[in-house]
Design brief:
The chain is built from 4 helices and no strands. It is extended. About 10% of the residues are buried. Helix 2 packs antiparallel against helix 3 and helix 3 packs antiparallel against helix 4. The mean pLDDT is about 95. It starts with 8 loop residues before the first helix and ends with a helix. It is mostly helical and about 130 residues long. It has one domain: Helix Hairpins (Orthogonal Bundle), CATH 1.10.287.
Length: about 130
């Protein structure tokens, strides 16, 4: 195998197929990922309903992306840990807990961004009642 791989369209298409397959696997096998996608859908619908600003969409999309990325990486780390040692092991537990912590931090950050974006709209609507 040479150190320099040839760039081909076929290889790029295959790499996208592998990546899409990974996302499908996370969807099928990870309950928390489905929860995050449900929340994502709700936030997107709310954003359209409230006609949020372009800059607010950027913040929302960034926050959603970070949460979903962390969830996918967390799932991969958990799988690697289970492959290395399928039994309960204190060091593996630490690795899994740290990885899950990244999802929690991203989710809290996304929730704060969501509140900063949507609360002014809620106050405006409540003020008009």
């Amino acid at each position: 195998m040479s150190s320099k791989q040839d760039f081909t369209l076929r290889k790029r298409i295959k790499s996208f197929a592998f990546a899409w397959n990974g996302i499908k696997l996370v969807w099928l096998q990870e309950y928390n990922f489905r929860i995050h996608l449900f929340i994502t859908l709700a936030v997107i619908v709310l954003g359209f309903a409230l006609n949020i600003l372009f800059v607010e969409w950027m913040m929302i999309i960034f926050a959603i992306s970070i949460v979903l990325i962390c969830e996918v990486i967390n799932s991969a780390i958990e799988r690697i840990c289970d492959f290395i040692n399928p039994n309960i092991h204190p060091k593996i537990k630490i690795i899994k807990d740290i990885s899950a912590g990244s999802v929690l931090l991203a989710s809290v950050g996304a929730a704060i961004i969501g509140l900063l974006v949507f609360l002014p709209y809620a106050f405006k609507i409540l003020g008009n009642l």
